[in-house]
Fold this sequence. Notes:
Blueprint: H1 3-28, H2 31-48, H3 58-78, H4 100-115, H5 118-129, H6 134-141, H7 145-175
Helix pairs in contact: 1-2, 1-3, 2-3, 3-6, 4-7, 5-7, 6-7
Amino acid sequence: MNADEERQFREFVAARSRSLLHTAYLLTGDWEQGRDLLQTALASTARRWSHLRDRQQPEIYVRRAMYHAQVDRFRLLSWRRETVTDTLPDQPSTQVGDWSDTVVQRQDIMAALKRLPKRQRAVIVLRYFEDRPDAEIASILGVAQGTVRSQTHKALTSLRTTLAAAEPSASSSAASGRGVSA
Length: 182
């Protein structure tokens, strides 16, 4: 990479890293893992920077690299660490405060997102958190637009089911003074 390309890459990272970090967090469900994921994707992008044909949209390359790195990481870790259960693990208790409802809702949403398969999670993040159209999501993930639509449908169905199942426990915890009010 020559000096001009390095300057362009640094400018890109400075301009887009915050948005990319939020995407990485939503893909992983953890800020530290998100930072690692973004760092991996940016390192891959830096190596290929001089070969990228369309310098106007390197963000698509980075997002694709993040998605694929997350899928690869999931495949490696899934054999060692994660186990499927019928029930969600216990949630930490929340303190009643001005933002307690928002915090509980965010925890519920993040827990539901973590339960989605990686491709469904990526589609939801790109569509609803980043407001990207189907064609761009398909390009980033390297799939057909029909796949994006079907994965969105499956993910939303799963999220609705998961969040609806969480509501009765939230309303019963509200009666005790903890959690979300109905």
